[in-house]
Each structure stands twice: as C-alpha cells, then as structure tokens.
Design brief:
The protein has 3 helices and 7 strands, in the order E-E-E-H-E-E-H-E-E-H. With 122 residues, the protein is α+β, with helices and mostly antiparallel strands.
Length: 122
C-alpha cells in the first residue's frame, strides 16, 4: 500500500507500518527512541537501505531546507500574515520562533499556559 508517497506494509497481528522503517529495523535493529529513518535520496517510497539514515526531526527539517525543498516560514507562504489565528499581532515582542522555524504567538502561549495551570489547580 502507498499513502502520501510512502510505502506501507501490513504485517499480520501488527498495525500498518512504514516500509522504510521496517527495512531499517531488519538490517540495523530497533530505531532509537525519538529518532526517525530519513531518506538521502528524498524519494518517500524508497526502501533502499543505502539511501536511509537515522536522524532527528530537526535533522530532517534542516536537510529539507538545505536542499531547497521548503522555504522557512520566515520566507514562505505565511510571511505576509500579520496576526495569529486568534487575532493577536505578530510583532517582534509577541512572536516566538521554534527550532523548526515556525512562528508562535506568545500571547496565545500565555493564555494556554494559564488555562492548563487552572485545570491542574482544580
């Protein structure tokens, strides 16, 4: 089965799994916690072990940006947005950038933090 460009394999008594992850584990053993199997060739459906390597999500994002497959959000399609979905302005004081180079509204984060604190306090 292929979904989203990736090869999937159904194994009896297990859920569907990504083919490139199965190949990696067959050759190299378990994938360490928090790591991903990445493609050197950038072909999602590829399961050639010579094209696969282990890395973090951040490694994958940096590889993608370096190869020009995706522009950072600072340069990309969302750069012209002046407000977050809740209506708070994206000013320098109210904007935080994640390691994946995505924009976060600081006011929304504060509101979410207060709400979560209030839930825990009750």
């Amino acid at each position: 089965m292929v979904s989203g460009g990736y090869g999937w394999l159904f194994q009896p008594h297990r859920k569907e799994r990504l083919l490139h992850r199965i190949v990696w584990e067959e050759v190299n053993g378990p994938i360490p916690e928090g790591l991903h199997v990445l493609h050197r060739c950038d072909v999602k459906g590829c399961a050639n072990i010579d094209h696969l390597f282990i890395g973090t999500h951040r490694d994958n994002m940096q590889d993608m940006f370096a190869k020009g497959y995706r522009r950072s959000n600072r340069e990309g399609t969302h750069r012209n947005k002046t407000h977050c979905p809740q209506g708070h302005p994206y000013t320098e004081e109210n904007t935080a950038w994640t390691l994946e180079d995505t924009r976060r509204c600081k006011e929304c984060n504060r509101i979410r933090g207060r709400r979560n604190y209030a839930k825990r306090a009750t």
